[in-house]
Amino acid sequence: MNPLRPRRSLRVAAVPVLLLLALAAGCAQPPSQAKPFPGGTITLGFSAWPGWFPWQVAEEEGLFRKNGVNVELKYFDSYTDSLNALATGKIDANSQTLNDTLASVAGGAKQSVVLVNDNSTGNDQIIAKPGITSLPDLKGKTVAAEQGTVDHYLLLLALRKAGLTEADVKFQPLPTDAAAAAFVAGRVDAVGVFAPFTTTALKRPGSRAIATSADFPGAIPDHLVVTRALVDGNPQAVQGLVRTWFDTLAWIKDHREEALQIMAKRAGVNVPDYETYDKGTTIFTLDQNRSAFTGDLPGRAKEISDFLVAAKLVDAPPPLDGLFAPQFVAAVQP
Question: Which residues form the signal peptide (predicted)?
C-alpha cells in the first residue's frame, strides 16, 4: 500500500456529500455522543502531507508523553477517512485543511482549529502540458482536479487571476492520483495536484507548473483540528498536543538529519525527495500561529466558505462561532 495516497483526497469538499447529509440528518454519531472526557487516550489522526509528518517524530521521540498527554497516533492512508473519523467522533483530533474543516462544520460537525501546522507555499500546483505557458492558455483546454479539493480551489483562484472562470475550461473531476496519471498519459491538458503528486505529473516531458499555491499566500492553510468535546472536556489534553507540536519543531531543528529519516520513512520516499517538499510547505512558528489567529484566519474562513457555497459543496455557509480556539497557542511558553 502506498502511504502517499492523497492527503487531501477531498481536501476542500472534506466530508463526502453522503456524510454531510447524514450529519445534517442526525444519522451519523453526533458530537455529543463522542467519547467522554476528561482523561483517557487521545486519538490523533494524520495523513500524507509534509506539514503533518512531524507528528511521527513526536511519537517516536516520546514528546507526547513529555507533555503529559496519552496519544494514540493514527495514520490514515486515505485522507478522506481521517476527515470522516473526526466528523463522526471516532477520533479526537486530526490534521486537516481549513477548507475541509469548514465543510465538516457546515455538515453539522462540532470542531475547533487549535493550531496552524503550515501553509502550502508551492506544493499545490496547476501543471500544464507543453505549449501551455500561462493561465490564459487554459481557455478551452481540459483540466483535471479532484472536485471540491483545495487544488480545485487553487484552479479557480488561478482562473480568476487570468480573467477566466471554470466555464472557460473543460473541467474533468478525477481523484488526485488518477488526475496526475491521466495528465502523464496525455488524456488531459493540465492538472491541479499537490505534493507528492506534483512529482508524478511533472514526469510528462515538457510539462511545467503555471500556477502554484505560492502565488496565493495564505489560501491553503493546514491545521490541527479537534472535536469541541475535547476542547470542552479535556482542555489540558489539547494544550498538551499544542505544546508537543512546538517541542517537535524544536527537536527537528536540533536533529534535522534524524528527523528527515523518520519523516521520509513515514512518507514512503527517500530523504532527498522528501527535502524537495520542504520548500513548498511553510511550517508556522509560534509567533506566526498567534498572528494567524488574531489576523488572517477569520477572513480566510469567510473566503473559503463562499467558495464552498458557490461550488455547491455545502448548502449554507458554516457557522464560525467556536471554530477558532486561539487560547492554546496563546498559552504556549516560547
Answer: 1-34
Phi, psi at 217, each rounded to 5°: -55, 130
Q: What share of the chain is helix, strand, coil (3-state, %, to 5)?
A: 45, 20, 35
Angstrom distance (rounded) from CA 226 to CA 240: 13
Q: In angstroms, what CA-CA distances link 264 with 6, 89, 257, 258, 270?
A: 16, 30, 11, 10, 6
Backbone angle region of 149, left / alpha / beta, with phi > 0 → left and psi within -120 to 50 → alpha: beta
Question: CB of 144 within 8 A of CB of 179?
Answer: yes
The structural domains of the chain, ordered by start, are 17-118+220-330 (3.40.190.10), 124-215 (3.40.190.10)
Query: Could you tell me the pLDDT band of residue 33, with boundaries at 50, 70 and 90?
Result: very low
Q: Are strands 170-173 and 142-145 parallel, antiparallel or unpaired?
A: parallel
> Could you tell me which residues come within 8 angstroms of residue 36 by beta carbon, excluding any fewer than 6 positions away?
233
pLDDT tens by residue, 312-334: 778 899 999 999 999 999 999 98
CA-closest candidate to residue 47, choices 282, 267, 274, 276:
267
Residues 43, 49, 54: CA angle, nearest 5 degrees: 60
Q: Are 31 and 228 in contact (CB under 8 A)?
A: yes
Rounded Cα–Cα distance for residues 66 and 251 (Å) = 13
Strands 142-145, 190-194: pairing kind: parallel
DSSP 49-75: -TTTTHHHHHHHTTHHHHTT--EEEEE
